[in-house]
Structures are given as structure tokens and as C-alpha cells.
Amino acid sequence: MTSTNDSNKAAPRKSGPSRRGAMKTIAGAAAALVAAPYIRPASAAPTALRALMWEAYAVRDVIGAFEEKHKVKFAPTFFDGNSEAYNKLRVGGTKDFDLVQADGFWPSLYFREKLIRDMDYAKIPGTANYFPAFKPDAFPLLKDETSGVFFGVPFCWGSYGITYNVGEVPVEKAKSLELLFSPDYSGRLATNARFEENIALAGIMVAHRMGTIDKPRPDGKSFNPYKLTDEELDGVEKLLIEQKPLLLTRYQDAATLEQLLVSGAIVAAPEFAQVYRLMLEKKAKGELDITVDHTLKPKEGGLGWVDTWLISSGVTDAEKADICHAFIDTMIKPETMVQIGKASGCSTTIDIRLLSSAEDQVLYLMNRTDELRGMYMFDQPSSTEKWERVWSRVQAA
Amino acid sequence: MYISLQGISKQYASVWAIDRVNMAIAKQEFVSLLGPSGSGKTTLLRVIAGLEKPTEGRVLIDGQDVTELPPHKRGVAMVFQEFLLFPHRTVRENLAFPLRMMKMPKAEMDERIDWALGILSLQGLDGRYPNQLSGGQQQRVALGRGLVGRPKVLLLDEPLANLDRELRQEMEVEIRRYQMKLGIPFIYVTHNQEEALSMSDRIAVVNKGHVEDFAERTTLYDKPKTAFIAQFVGRSNKFEGKVTAADGGSCTIDAGGLSLTASGNGGLKPGDAAFAFVKNEKVALAPEGFVGEDNSLPCTVRDVILRGAYAEYLLETSDGLGLVASRPRSGEGPSIGHAVVAHWASGDVDLYPVKPDLGLRR
Amino acid sequence: MIGGLRISRDPRAWIFLGVPSVFLVLLFVLPLVSMIVLSFWRTENYHIIQDWNVDNYYVIATAGAYVTFLIRSLVMAVIVSALCVAIAWPVAYGVIVYGGRYKLLLSLGFAIPFLTGEVLRVIALQGLLGPLGLFNGVLMALGAAPLRFIMYTNFASAIGLVYLYLPIVVTVIYLSLLNFDMRLIDAARIFGAGPFRGFIEVTWPLNLFGTLIGFALCFVPCLSATLVPRFLGGPSGTLYGMALAQQFGESGTWALGAAMGVVLFLLSIAGVLLVFRFVDLRRSGFTGFGRS
To answer: What keywords would UniProt list here (chain A) (predicted)?
Structure first.
């Protein structure tokens, strides 16, 4: 991982120290200036608990009760993607935020870059209620391998599976990623507009076809669709270009996807299972004729994510850390999680089956948490520059 | 007749802006349409131009009924009050416009434009844009654009209203000269009686949508046909009163205690309400104690206004009645505060019956 | 004719010119400079690296994709702007001529769409053109196949852009016509021009400047349009502005995005200059030169 400071070291050392210093100041000022329009610092108040989080999880009642109890003001800032949150943190955001959310492999990146600090599970009794798959010992994503400390707690989870129209697509076909690249459904498919998931999903498909998915990887680790070889990337580019004429569109939001599925304009699309849930609920109320199902993990492999709560490395005093821990504990209480699940349409990592109806257990995939184990977690692309180029070429083709 | 307006009426909403106007204009005539603002004179001009369609009536130009023709097929040209030169065209291009529309060959076009530039003394300005010209120069270009295409008739809509007095008088003479030179009718709309009197052969006085009179300028001035004309044309003293005695040869009116004698009775009978007008220049002044002629009135000079060759004396009777007398400035006149006798001949009194004002036809 | 640039010594002149200048520097020049600086740096996995290079420009010029986006955008902007002008003219003219006492009301009506956000309008349009929208919803209810060409295509983007920018163009042309002395048309008619000829000779040239401003106010935002292609354009509808926004958004390749922005900025300026190079202001009745 190259940081700003590393690159300064790599710069030519010929120029004298004073000039270098000046250049550095100018560059620093320029960087601040350049970054300024894209970064909104949160105002710091001593009695405030400041969080950088997904908007869907900000449930008013829960937060209000917490504010009341701990006499603090909860000040959330919302983000739209991991990269946005990452950037906010990197440009001094650790001083602006106490609590942070991230998913997939991003927390470990944050920890490596010292953007977040370690956490004490003992101070979060709610962690006892996790589904087996998310128990600290079973879920290695939030544990530092070398020091063994934990730096995050799981919150909600989901996949990027395939929602499909049961009337149009046979179940057998829907179990494979091939469905998304099948000319049989030309013009009746759609995908998300995000470039990471498009490339990663195609990456799984390509690596599967090339047979490289099970072979030893250049980095010595197991296959990760966010770390593709150049050959695989070439294949992804070709595959995505082939896929283009099959797509009606790349949807921007869940509402659009729902409209596309409900109208029958498309028969299948990869998504975060939100629309699947919405449509099932409507079906149950008799508002909908179309039946959809959701393939959580296609047979070639699937993408998954686990949202987490993290504590910013800016939190140094014990008192503040305690409030952070208390907040997280409040958020993962089973009663809270039921509310959040309903509000956000996400599955929870806390076992709330005792509090949920049989329908909800199906709807929120409560008996399918084990399937997440085999999924590839959301991650940062190995080179956003390379991936961007691929994505641009696909769009321009 | 060369131009003939037959029963022209124009209705806007519920109001008749022009009401049954009939006029006949000869080929070499300079005709003015004189009237106050809102009288309908400009509307009448626009009807002739074809910019407005009459609600009733026909317009004939050179024997052809053009009522249904659009303006560009009537062979008319127009000079507008605000000049309305094309701001994006040079003087030469403005002058060329009517000729281009006629598809005139280039050589002939240049000849015509040079001719127009010549008679209007615009040589050397042909490359300028309108906003680089003075008001007088713009006026000349507007006139030139009207004349260059040799129209059948030139319509002028208060073309001198935006010029200062001196320039206006200069232009009056010039416009009259062009008209005589070209031998086409000019129809000139104005609210300024001096302009109308100085240039026109005949003047049509327009009031409330109809023509009060259409007559030679001297007739119009000397023998105004209606009270409106008597008031609007020239400067007059106006009296309102009742006829006390009338016979075939003369008539006596009592106007607020003042007794006026007029020759002729204007069809009035004793007891009728009447207006009497005496032109300012017909009122003579004599020293105190003078008695004579038909009407004489002792007054005091309140003020004297110099008008160059003549002076206006603002007079006041002992009853507080105001009068104006215009006299040529030969020798010493009476000065302010002097007692004088104002007197005039009975033949100089114009009498009209008082009619109810009907306003515009609805 | 133009008496050189002379600024009065009057201190008030400095205030009147100085305040806008400061604003311009703060809100326009500084961001632009920061953009230019950034375009000569590079990014690596969400990090800005300050080593000076021209790679971003090289990538834009040679990678193909970006040039494709640019050409798509140019074609789109030209077509949309021309369409807007063609629609706006009769609308604005009609309001001026027939608007009567409702003229002001109608002209204010053009501004109503500006009261809602652009995002809202685009999403509304996406609904309208989408599979359950007004057109296709009706068609499908009647048992017909939906019109695929208005769903997620460049055609849909064009409709969206016309819809977004038409009010601006109408307003600008309306204002131009409002300042235009309609009696000049009378003059043209009197001097032999029929309605069409009068339009060509007088109305059009004297409103050309306003029309070009309207065209430019449509063209430039079309060139950088982000939302419309995103929501309406479909898989092959990526336009330059949308690709540019991606650099700053999800992919975090800000330096490349900055270079794309600089290219767009230069291109917009060049386009506007080119247009005005061929327009003689005097020929459009522009009188701002004063008399001489």
C-alpha cells in the first residue's frame, strides 16, 4: 500500500532540503485544496458521539434512547460507499469521527493503516448473541492475525446474489452465474451500476471458466475476485463487453430494479436481496403476481459482505471508548437488530429468530448464515486504476 | 383618385378605433392626418400600409383593391416615428433592403442607393451602422429607405417627433421638396399642427376615430368646419355661452356676461348653447378708451410672451376673464400692467353649436 | 470603434469590479487551478501521489474509451442543443406574440422546473420512460410490446437532456425576443419581405446572439451531463461527464478525472470561442460598443 509519504521518499532527492520543504508545503497545501471540495469535515463537539455510517442503520428511536441514557449527542455523517468513507478517514477523518462502519475486507485495511483502533468484546455483552458463523472465533475477518486483537464487531450481512423471476427462469439455471451472461435472456437482464461488483462477479465467472479459481494464486493466498491477474482481467473485459447487449440497463437504485422486475422488463439481476425481500412481502400481501427467488451463492461462487462497527483511532481516552462500546452494544441488542433489519432490509448477524416470525426467518435468510462462509468478501480492488480502465473500455465498447 | 379609402372601420375589442372613414387622395398630393394621440390616425395609416386589416371597408391604391394584400405586395413604403432602421445593417444595406426584396439587379441597385444617399446628403456614411448616426442622420436614412424603392405612396408616421425643433423645421422643408420631386402621394401622420400646416396640400383632422374634415390647409385654418378643428388648429380664444339674438346676418352671444357679436349665425337660434372662437392673431389692441368695430373689451396686460416676429399678450378683463392676442412686433406694444382695449371684427368670430360628446363608437 | 480597455480611476469602479473579481478568483480560478494541479499527479488505490507526470492526458488520448465518451457527448450535445433551440423558438415566439397579459405568467412558468432538483426531475423521467412509465405502461396494458428504444438508450438520454435544458433555452430566447423590437418586422414587411423572409432577414439575425447563448447554455451542461446518462442511458449510454464523475466517485481515480475535467473545460471554451468567432456581434444588432 503506497501512501503519500512513501511517494515523497521516492521523489528525486537531488534538490536541497529547503526547497524540498517548500515543495512539500506547497504540495500539502495543494492536496488539501484539491481534496477540500470532496471532503466535508464533521464539526467536533465535546459531548457528541460522531459516527461515519450507512444512513439505513440510523434508527431514530434507538439512537434517541441511547442519547437520553448516556447524555451525549449522536452526530452521524452518512456515506455512499466504502471508498468514500475510506477517503474521509484518510484525510484527517479519524479526528472527526468516533465510530465508523465498513464492510467486507475494508476493516482490515483500515486497521493496517491505523485508521481504527482495537476493541474489547468483553465490553460488548451483545456479542454473545451472534449466529455461529459470526462468533469471534469463527469469523476471522475482524481479528488482527499478528497481534490477535479484535478491531470490529459484525453487524448486518448480505450477499450480492441473483434475484430472478421464477416463472421465467428455471431454478437450475438460476443457480449459476452463467444466467447473467446467457443470450437466452437477451435484453431481459440488468446489473448494478457499481464497477467493483460487476468486475468481481465477472471475475469469478472468468476464473471459473479458465480454471484458475482453484489453482495457486500469484500472492499465495486463495482466490479473491478483487485480486485478479491481468489475464483474468482481460477475460473479464471481454465477458462484460459480451454481456452488454444482453443488459437492459445497469440499475442505479433498488426502486428502479424493483420496477424492472415487477414490470417483467427483466427476469434476473444480481442484487443485495433488498428487492427480493420487498417483492416477497408484496406477494404475501397479494399485491404482486410475479414470484421471485434469490440465489444467495451461485455455484461458481458469490460475493458477500458483513457490515461492521469500528472505533476510530482518534478515540484515545477511556471514557470515550466506553461510550463507543456501549453504543455498539446498544446497536447489536436483538431487539434493536429486529428494528434495524426491518428498516434497512438487511439480514442480521445477531440471532433474532426467537423474536421473528417464520416468514421473517425465511425473508431475512436467518437459517442461511452458514452460506456466507464460502463467499468472497467485498474488498478493495487490487488496482482501482486498472479496474477503472477495464470498466471504461467496457462502457465505451 | 389615386388612393381611395372607402368606409374604413377598425374595431379593437368593443371599440371602433376608426369609424367609417372615406378619403380620396390624388397622385401628387401631400396629405396630413392630424389629430391628438389616440385619435386613430396611426391606425388609419397602418390600415393603408396593410399592417392592420380593416374590420370594414376597402383600400384602393392606383385603382387596385389592396384590402386583402399583405404589406409587401402593396407597393407602399413607410417612415416610422422611431425610424426602425435595421440595427444589424449598415446604412447602405438598410437602403438596399427594399431593392433586394424587389430582386433588383446589382448595378441598378447601386445606382438607386447612390441617388438616395445623394439627395439625402448621406454620402460617406454608407458604411456606418444606425447606432453610429445622429438622430437627424437616422431620420434621413429612414426617409431614404422609404424613397429608394420608388413606392406608389410613402406613409410617414410622425417621423419628426424625435427630432429637435430646429432640425424638424429643416426636415419639413426637405420632406416637402422630395414629395414634389418624386410626384407620389405622401400621407403624413402627425399631432403637430405646425408640421401639418407647413407641408401639406390637404389636411384630414382625425378625432375619435373619424375624420372631422379633410380640406385644403388654408380652408381648414381659416374656416374650421367644427369646434374641434377650431380648437385644435391654430391658437384661439374660446368662449362658451348662449345665443341671445340671431338673424340672417349676425348673431349675439352672451358668454358669462360678455356680449359677443358674430357675422353669420351658424344655424343657431336664440337660446342655443354655442362655442365661439376668435383666433389669437385676430384680436387687435388699442389704447384705453377706444371704442369701435363689433367687439371691444377693456383689459389689462398681465404678461407678454415674445415669439420672435410676434408677441403674445395675455390679457385679463375686469371680470377676470382671460384672453390672448398675438400681434406682430412692429414698434412699441403695450407693456405689462397697461390698460388696453382688445377688439375684433364680427367676421372673425367662428360659431358652433354645443353638441354632446359621443366619444368613440361602441 | 472600441476605445481600448480603460478603467476609471474612481475608487467606486474598483469596488464594483473588485468584488466580482474576488468572487471569480475564489469560486472559479482556485478550483480550476487545483484541478489542473491534480491532473498532473496520479492516484494509486485511493491515494493521491504527488509526482508530476502527464500520464493522465496520455491515457485520455490513447486509451480509446475516453475519446469515445467525448465523441458521444459532443454528438449528443450538438443534437440536444439544436433540438432545444428548434423547439424553444416557436414556444418563446408564441408567448411573446400571443401571450398578451399572461406573458409574464407564462415566462415565469418556464422557471418552475428549476424549483425542483435536477435529480428529482431525472428520476421522474426515468419513471416516465421506464417499463411501468406513461408510455410503456400504457402500451403493455394494451398488450403491446414496450418501446425498447425509449428505455435505457442514448435516445432516452437525449429526451432527458432536452427535457432538462429546454426551459433554459426557452427562457433565454424569450428574453432575447422580449428585447427585440417587433416593429422591425413591420418595417421588413413594409419594405417587401414576406413573413419567412422577414424572419430570415430581421428576426433571426437580431436574436442570433440570444439564440447562441441559449445554445451554449444547453451545450455546455450537456457535454458534462452526469445524471441523465446514468439514469436513462443504459449500458452503452455512458457519456463523458458520467465517466468523469465515476473517476471522482467510486473508482477514486481523481487525477485522471481532473485531467478529464481540464480537457472538458478547454473543449467547452474552445467550442464557445469557435462559435463566437463566426458571429459578428454588430451583425446581431449588438450595441454594446457605444457610439463613435
So the answer is: Periplasm, Signal, Transport
What are the angstrom distances between the C-alpha of C151 and each of A396, B50, C70? 19, 52, 22
Task: With CB atoms and an 8 Å threshold, state whether A263 touches C236.
Answer: no
Burial of B344 from C-beta contacts in 10 A (0-12 / 13-18 / 19+): buried
pLDDT at B204: 93
Q: What is the CATH number of the domain that holds C188?
A: 1.10.3720.10
Could you list the residue range(s) of the whole structural domain that residue C151 is in? 58-284
Task: Specify burial of residue A288 (Cβ count, 10 A radius: 0-12, 13-18, 19+).
Answer: middle
**pTM of the predicted model, to two decimals?**
0.77
Alpha-helical runs (H) found in A211-317: 230-243, 254-263, 274-284
Helix, strand or coil for residue C124? helix
Q: Indicate whether B50 belongs to any domain.
A: yes
> Which residues, 6 or more positions from B249, have their beta carbon under 8 angstroms from its beta carbon?
B263, B264
- More confident of the two residues A137 and B305: B305
Q: Are B118 and B140 in contact (CB under 8 A)?
A: no
Total residue length of chain C: 292
Report yes or no on C236 lying in a domain.
yes
Strand partners, A157: A306, A347
B/C Cβ contact: 3+ pairs below 8 Å = yes
Tell me, yes or no, if the two domains A48-155+307-352 and A161-301+379-396 fold the same way.
Answer: yes
CATH T-level fold of A161-301+379-396: D-Maltodextrin-Binding Protein; domain 2 (3.40.190)
Residue of B nearest to C194 (CA): B72
| Span B290-306, average pLDDT | 84
CA torsion, ordered B60, B64, B70, B74, to nearest 10 deg: -90
Secondary structure (DSSP) of A30-74: HHHHHHGGG--PPPP-TTEEEEEE-GGG--HHHHHHHHHHHT-EE
Cell readout for B62 is 392606383
Contacts of C176 (CB under 8 A, 6+ apart): C92, C207, C209, C210, C211, C213, C214
Tell me the three state secondary structure of residue C272: helix
C-alpha cell at C47: 491515494
pLDDT given for residue C247 in this prediction: 86
pLDDT below 70 — which residues of chain A? 1-46
Q: Which chains touch C (3 or more CB pairs under 8 A)?
A: A, B
Rounded distance between C-alpha atoms, residue A377 and residue A388, angstroms: 20
Separation in Å, CA of B136 to nearest CA in chain C = 15
Cα–Cα distance, B214 to B206 (Å, whole number):
9
Can you name the residues that pair with B211 across neighbouring β-strands?
B206
Q: What is the pLDDT of residues B189-204, one digit of tens each?
A: 999 888 899 889 999 9
Interchain contact, C184 vs B101, CB within 8 Å? no
Task: Decide if C161 contacts C227 (C-beta within 8 A).
Answer: no
Phi first, then psi: give them for residue B67, nearest 5 degrees: -50, -40
Q: C64 to chain A: which residues are within 8 Å by CB?
A: 393, 396
| Alpha-carbon span C59 to C66, nearest angstrom | 8
DSSP string of A99-136, one letter each residue: EEEEETTHHHHHHHTTSB--B-GGG-GGGGGB-GGGST
Average pLDDT, chain C: 83
Alpha helices in chain B (DSSP H): 41-49, 91-101, 106-119, 135-148, 165-182, 193-199, 217-222, 227-232
C95: in domain: yes
Please tell me which residue of chain C has the smallest CA distance to B129: C282
Which residues in chain C have their CB less than 8 angstroms from residue A83's CB? Answer: 46, 250-252
* Rounded distance between C-alpha atoms, residue C88 and residue C210, angstroms: 12
Chains that touch B (3 or more CB pairs under 8 A): C
| Start-end of H helices in B149-282 | 165-182, 193-199, 217-222, 227-232
Domain A48-155+307-352 in CATH 2.40.480.10? The answer is no
Q: Are B209 and B248 found together in one domain?
A: no
Residue-level pLDDT at B109: 92
